[in-house]
Structure formats: C-alpha cells, structure tokens
Design goal:
With 290 residues, the chain is of the alpha/beta class. The chain has a single domain (7-162, 197-248, 285-289), classed as Rossmann fold (3-Layer(aba) Sandwich), CATH 3.40.50.150. It is built from 14 helices and 7 strands. The chain has helices at residues 12-29, 40-58, 74-79, 93-96, 138-148, 163-176, 184-194, 196-204, 208-214, 216-221, 226-235, 251-256, 260-272, 274-277; strands at residues 64-68, 85-90, 106-110, 123-129, 149-161, 240-248, 281-289. It has a 7-stranded mixed beta sheet, with helices on both faces. Helix 7 packs across helix 8 and helix 8 (196-204) packs across helix 9 (208-214). The longest helix is centred in the first third of the chain and has 19 residues, at 40-58. The model is unreliable at 1-5 (pLDDT under 50).
C-alpha cells in the first residue's frame, strides 16, 4: 500500500523503519548489488582510497576497524585483507545476511550507528559509505565515531550528498524550467537530486515516501554542508578534518562514453579551482583524524 507520509512527517523512528524496509527490499531483489558503486572501476577507486588512508596513517596492518552501515559488505570486501578484525554495524539483518564472512576476521552486529556496544577507543579505523544521509541527524553518529576511535585513528566517510550541488541543481530547475531539457546532463540530475523517491518508485518499485524517509538528511536538508560537518567533527574531538569532492556534474556520461582520460583532466582542473567549483561535485568525502 502506498504511504501517505509527507516529508514533514519524517522522524528518527520513521527513518529507522523506512531504512529497514527499503534496504530489505533492495537486498532481497538484488537491486542493491546492482548499484553503480559496485562497478569494478569504482571498487578499484575506493580500494585505492582505503589503502592511501590505512598505510600512511595506521601502518601496514591496523588491528581493528568498524564499518558503520555496512550493508551487504561493500567496504568490508574491499578492506578485509588490510585489517586484522572488522566489526560491521547495521540495522537491517536482510543486508547483513549477504556479507561474505569467509575471510574469518569479520564480525557483524545489529546496532544503530549512534549507539554501538563498544568501549571507548576500541578501533583504529572507522568507515561509512553511502550511509550518513540515511541518518536523521549525523551529529550523534560523528560523536560516536570519535568515541570509539583511538587517538590517531582515522574516520572515512564517502558518497555523502553535497548540499551545494543539490542547491545548484534546484536553482537551475527553478530558473530554467522546461528549458532545462535542452541541457541533458543537468536535466538528468534534477531527477536524482530533487526527485529521487519518484525515480526509485518508477524504476524499482520502491515506495517514494519510504525512500525519502530512508534518506532524511538528503530529503530534509538537501545533503551536507561541508564546512558545518567539519566544524562539528572538530568540536567532538577530531584533531584533523578535511573534505574531498567526488563525482563532478557530467562525469558519468564522459566515463560511460569511454573517455576516462577526459574525465580525469576535468576532475583535476575542477580541484584546482575547488573554492569556487565545489558545487559542481555531487558527493563529499570526509576524512577525520582523532
């Protein structure tokens, strides 16, 4: 039955209910495993990032890592050979049942990310991928990540929706209206940035209101403000914070058109002018050191 909840009805409890419902459905149908971030080129990209964070900061092989919102094990699969022990945290049993436990150093826990069962300073490395926007409020989560990390530990969170990007797309849609159809790269993003619930309902059969409730930060706040998140991270005990911008507007069509070198040239240029070009990137990557 179609949900009648509006965006203003989203609450912390509703967000948890919606996340379990939506991600259970996506896991059962196999749609989650077909997400773009599972593509081989992205897996290689994320693996390189993980190696670049672990080896310089934590040595050849850190003792223990925690993966918040581990889902079906996307990050766990990419780093289990780099870590002695990984603890995966999620609230959706249907997803965790698909985690490959065969490496032997992976331990799963059904728990909310904001209140895990671990003592202070348990972990060397903390991760989350395509997860933070599924929280009703990211601040208790960042606080918990700081609590369970040892001094010198690294927090890595990727694929977080960039509020500046969503605002820019919204402004373009308002200013150009139907004329935006003449700019297909931009027009394509209107659906993903502003009408994600309707897209998932049409393409995957996921109830639009449920999907919006499962992504409350994207739905209610239009994603993350990089400066705000980094400021809060410092307030709760991280000594070093940085943001990296990922996936520029139009990068997908360029790569899918088999022009990855062109995409890299554009990306490098945009990073040179990042202070005035940050709104052209869809996602934020946060790297914090305690």
């Amino acid at each position: 039955m179609k949900s009648t909840n509006s965006r203003t009805d989203i609450s912390p409890e509703r967000a948890i209910e919606a996340n379990i419902h939506v991600h259970s459905q996506l896991a059962r149908t196999g749609e989650y495993a077909r997400s773009p971030h599972f593509r081989p080129e992205n897996r290689q990209h994320v693996r390189r990032i993980l190696e670049s964070l672990i080896r310089p900061h934590l040595g050849a092989r850190p003792w223990r890592a925690i993966d918040f919102g581990c889902g079906t094990g996307f990050l766990i699969d990419l780093m289990h050979d780099l870590i002695d022990r990984i603890d995966g945290i999620d609230i959706t049993p249907e997803m965790m049942r698909q985690v490959d436990l065969s490496p032997g150093n992976i331990h799963l826990h059904e728990s909310r990310a904001e209140s895990t069962p671990f003592p202070d300073e348990t972990f060397d490395f903390a991760t989350s991928y395509s997860f933070m926007d599924h929280l009703f409020d990211y601040r208790p989560f960042i606080t918990e990540a700081a609590r369970v990390l040892r001094v010198g530990g690294v927090f890595f969170s990727d694929l977080n929706p960039n509020r500046a990007f969503i605002d820019a797309i919204s402004q373009a849609a308002s200013a150009r209206g139907s004329a935006l159809e003449g700019f297909p790269v931009v027009h394509r993003e209107v659906e993903g940035a502003l009408n994600n619930g309707q897209y998932y309902e049409r393409s995957l059969g996921v109830d639009a209101a449920m999907l919006e409730a499962a992504e409350p930060i994207k739905t209610l706040s239009r994603g993350f403000d990089a400066t705000e998140v980094m400021s809060f991270a410092k307030d709760v005990g991280f000594s070093q914070v940085r943001v990296e911008y990922e996936w520029f507007l139009g990068q997908g069509p360029i790569i899918n058109g088999e022009r990855p070198k062109d995409a890299e040239v554009i990306r490098q240029y945009l990073r040179l002018v990042e202070p005035v070009a940050g709104h052209l990137f869809k996602y934020l990557r946060f790297v914090f050191i305690k």
